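In practice, a research group might receive sequence data for several interacting partners and want a quick structural hypothesis before committing to experiments. The following worked case mirrors that situation: the sequences arrive first, and a predicted assembly follows.
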Amino acid sequence: MLAGLVCLGRKGAAMKLWRRTDKAATSSPSELVPPEGVPIYLEVAGLGVRLAAQITDIGITLIAAIAVLVLILSLGVGDPSTLLAIGSLLFFVIRVPYYVIAELAWNGQTLGKRLMKIKVVSHDGRSLNTHALVLRNFMKEAEIFLPATLLLTLDASSPVASGVALAWILGGLFVPLFNRHRQRLGDIMAGTHVIHLPVPVLLKDLAQVPVKAAAATKSYTFLTHQLDHYGAFELQALEKLLRSQEKGGVLVRSKNNQATIESVVEKIRQKIGYANKVPEAERLKFLGAFYNAQREHLEKRQLFGERRKDKHYAAEDSPS
Amino acid sequence: MAESDLIRSARFRKEREADWRRLETLVTQAERVGLQRMDFAAARDLAALYRNATTSLAIAREISLDKALLDYLEALTARAYLSVYAPQERLGGLVRKFFVSGAPIAIRRSWLFILIGFLCMGLGVLAGYQLFLENPAWYHVFMPPELSGGRGPTSTTEELRQVIYDQDPSTSGLGAFATFLFSHNTRIAIFVFGLGVFLCAPAVLLTFYNGLSLGAFYALHVERGLGSDLGGWLSIHGVTELSAICIACGGGVQLGAAILFPGKRSRRAALRYAGRDAVKLALVAAFMLVVAALVEGFGRQLIQDKATRYVIGWGLGLCWLAWFALGGRVRQ
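A structural hypothesis for the assembly, expressed as tokens:
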């Protein structure tokens, strides 16, 4: 981001290339349309975090199964020779309802998912229904646990069956890689996908403070033609820079930072043709005032139906 | 500082910020204790404030360029949406609904697929029976050795009779129940359902094969004059267990058919639609298998009388049939 700001003044192609790679790097958001009709964009959970949640859940159910098994043994009901069969039965009997009931009770989250802050949501923007949850967790049995048990119980004497089981697991694991929402087979059938829970954090409005400060002292004023150079992207990059100036209420005063600020101020001055020199102590105030003015200007343009995505807006509008 | 000094989007935010903060606390509360346990005023405010927040989000997307505000509203609205549209059914009610109406109706709706399942099994039995009578060597082709338990064309009639009327207490009780549940037939049932999705063929083949081995096994006993004894031995749990396999096969075939013949829907949509009933079939099959394992684990060794075995087995079968045929019908 900072690099983008520093090269604000640099011409065209390099900048575009840089931004495109940036866009590709961010994970794909999924669009949900709730009944209210305002689309919501949520970040799709990756395979790694889902695997971590899955391992946590398997651990929890396994421990529960072992605990019950020990209890049964201590009561002297079971026969040691059938220990394995009883154990796997318990694991199965605890595991299957656990997923369904947990996801029903906690609205799409098992304990592992809660820990990883991910969540199952319905694809169509409506609430999760029981059918979907049962289906997706049943298919999990068929996709993962069944072939895994097979793989564990089969030995080297039947390489073909082991190979089939392995191919089955791998096939199941590859399905999510080939669709945008990272859906398992069960997710596809149930019409669900897994998302990261967003965390709402409200930062203070930058446009609120500097106005007061600027009104009290000597204020920087910008003319309309000076504000016609940048678009929303640059504005938000500047916003990020200004926010990074304060960490926990304390101003950041590193040499590196000073140099960045100076180069940004100089670039902006050059680009918009702001003649007056900005003294070192006033630089942040200048940037704040510029942010304010630029935002007001861009928002006004936006209200009139002219969205300026970035500084190349003019080139995009007029076909050349 | 006067209000009008602020730029428009900052004013927009200032006017609504208190509501958003309140929504934020309500959402955290709803996520922690659940919507059901919130008091009336809080739940009402949550829904109302959520709708306000969606409006704010829609407006902010149009008028504001403040990234912090947009991110916050996106996240807040999403969180509020997820807690407002949480599933609100009660678990007990769900179980009751499944047993009273959901399952039998689904079974009746997919009678054709279940019929296909029973046909596969029945034809398999017939073919296995005839092939064995023609040449007993077929027995070894159809019957997996671990399943026959040493019984084959070479065993004496006395040995066969002993297995049928076995009174070994170690093969009864909880351990046996678990073993039986994870025995051959359950695995077959899971396979025929899960594999049905691959264009039906594996489900049909597996069910047919299962029928083949059953037919050969039966033919072996009929040849030694133990047909009716084996019938009793198999009936007590087999009526339930084999029906479960056929129903599971029906579910699998239903999924496969949705992929083969999606009709006017897309394949994905057809699969999702077929899944609604298929999952209920699988659940019914699982429930039947548990009952079958219970009967097999506790009942088969305790009840040695042939007639009683028949009565229990087919009586249980009649109960299933009555459930499927009569459950969930609304009285006119």
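Before designing any experiment, note the following. The first helix of chain B runs from residue 8 to 33. The mean pLDDT of chain B is 82.
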